[in-house]
Amino acid sequence: MIEIIILLGVLSVLTVVVAVFYTKRIREAYEMYSKAKNAIDDIIISFNRQLQSQEKRMEVSNQKIGVLFNNNESFAEQLNTQKERITTLTENVESISTVEKSVPPIQVLEKKIAEIELAKDDLNKKVLEIQRQKLQQKETETKIESAIPIKREKALAPLTETELGVLEFLAVEGEKTAPEIKNKIMLSREHTARLMKKLYEKGYLERSANRIPFKYSLKEEMQRILRKPTQKS
User: Fold this and answer.
1) Is the pTM above the cut of 0.85?
2) Distance between CA atoms of 192 and 179, rounded to whole angstroms?
3) Which residues contact residue 198 at a Cβ distance below 8 angstroms, ignoring those fewer than 6 apart?
4) Phi and psi at residue 209, to the nearest 5°
5) Rounded CA separation 114/120 (Å)
6) Closest CA to 156 of 207, 233, 232, 218
7) Residue 27 lies in a domain
8) Which residue among 84, 112, 146 closes a domain?
9) Same-domain status, 141 and 193
10) CA–CA gap between residue 123 and residue 130 (Å, rounded)
11) Using H for helix, E for strand and C for coil, what is the string for the chain?
12) For the segment 191-228, what is each residue's pLDDT rounded down to a tens digit?
């Protein structure tokens, strides 16, 4: 009797274990089925969206095709019109071809016009440069005149004939040394040296001290004074 009870108990335990095992397997299978179903639903939804998008694109394409078809008909009409215009232009070109042969090419005329414009610009530049130089010369002369507040007579009155001759000699010959001037005025070397030093210290001359013997030259205002009578005559 006890053995039967034990056997029944073992069978009951095995039954429970088997039931639990199969229940777990069924639950796992159901979860896998749910996941697969959800994935399939997502795929179906995505596919439906793609179909809807394709349908919209097809509608737009059909509309564009209709517009293009209408445009093609209009384009065909315009093409016929353009053909007629081309035919007319061809006839006109043929009628004026003889005239064009006697007319210089446009490129040649444009080149000549460009050359004339360049020559004109160059001439204008030269004229402006001459005017600018004349204006500068006048301004320089005005400045020189204002830098000489005394008249010719007052500037040259203190000078002796020998000193005036030295100044006139330098005005004509340009920069000279004392020995070169000595030969002109026929004085001794010492006398000539003192004379040149005197004229330099009184402001009639400029002296170049780069090398010995010194070279003397007239100051610009003295050049102006000595040239003034000649200019008036």
Assistant:
1) no
2) 8
3) 163
4) -100, 20
5) 10
6) 218
7) no
8) 146
9) no
10) 11
11) CHHHHHHHHHHHHHHHHHHHHHHHHHHHHHHHHHHHHHHHHHHHHHHHHHHHHHHHHHHHHHHHHHHHHHHHHHHHHHHHHHHHHHHHHHHHHHHHHHHHHHCCCHHHHHHHHHHHHHHHHHHHHHHHHHHHHHHHHHHHHHHHHHCCCCCHHHHHCCCCHHHHHHHHHHHHHCCEEHHHHHHHHCCCHHHHHHHHHHHHHCCCEEEECCCCCCEEEECHHHHHHHHHHHHHC
12) 988 988 898 888 889 888 787 888 888 888 888 877 65
- For 45, the token pair is 């939804």
- List the structure tokens of 14: 């095995």
Looking at the fold, whether 111 and 132 belong to one and the same domain comes out as yes
In the structure encoding, which two tokens stand for residue 10, read together? 């073992």
C-alpha 205/C-alpha 164 separation (Å) is 12
Chain segment 80-125, per-residue pLDDT in tens: 888 788 888 777 766 666 555 555 567 777 888 888 888 878 887 8
* Residue at 58 is within a domain: no
158 within a domain of the structure (yes/no): yes
In what order do the strands lie in the sheet containing 215-218?
176-177, 215-218, 205-208
Quick one: tokens of 146?
């204002």
Q: Are residues 128 and 109 in the same domain?
A: yes
Residue 113 pLDDT: 86
CA distance 177 to 214: 6
Which residues span the domain enclosing 136?
104-146
Residue type, 136: Q
Q: How many domains does the chain have?
A: 2
